[in-house]
Amino acid sequence: MRERIRQIMENENLTPAKFADRLQINRANISHILNGRNNPSLDVVTKILSGMPYINTEWLINGTGQMYKDGFDMDSIPKEHDLFHQGPPATPQEKETVVKPEGIDVNKPEKNIQVIENKIIDAQKNNDKKIRQIIIYYNDSTFETFVPQPVK
Asked: Phi and psi at residue 87, in whole multiples of 5°?
């Protein structure tokens, strides 16, 4: 049954932590099951079957039959996305259908410009905390890093 649980997680692109959270099962329980330390309890099996009603009970318990119930479309399962696979890549036709709204200049700066005052911080007031670096992230996914110079 451990391998069948692992197969469910792989098919739905779930990490053990996300799988446990989705079914409201303790993460350690899932870890122990996947590592072979414990067998799945009746509570775990019932939570899988109630949280994922499209899973075939016979398949989960005995390993017989298909993973999904008859007539269930596997593509209708909402998949969890990971950091590197956010979704299917756009086809060339989909890329061409992107329409840019007219009258909006993306590169035009906003009129709300904030004025930031340069302040000199007295380093003797904050002896226990020192700034190592300042990182500024921009909305175009770039950043700048500033490292303060030692105070003389």
From this structure: 165, 175
Tokens 């994922």 -> residue: 52
Confidence (pLDDT) at 139 = 87
| CA gap 14, 8 in Å, rounded | 8
Whole-prediction pTM value? Answer: 0.49
Angstrom distance (rounded) from CA 68 to CA 85? 24
First to last CA, the chain: 67
Q: Which two tokens stand for residue 62?
A: 């005995």
Nearest-angstrom CA–CA distance, 45 and 120: 62
Report d(CA 48, CA 36) in Å as an integer. 18
pLDDT computed for residue 32 by the predictor: 93
When pLDDT is averaged across residues 124-131 and rounded to a whole number, the result is 67
Q: What is the 3-state secondary structure (H, E, C) of the chain?
A: CHHHHHHHHHHCCCCHHHHHHHHCCCHHHHHHHHCCCCCCCHHHHHHHHHHCCCECHHHHHHCCCCCECCCCCHHHCCCCCCCCCCCCCCCHHHHHCCCCCCCCCCCCCCCCCCCCCCCCCCCCCCCCCCCCCEEEECCCCCEEEECCCCCC
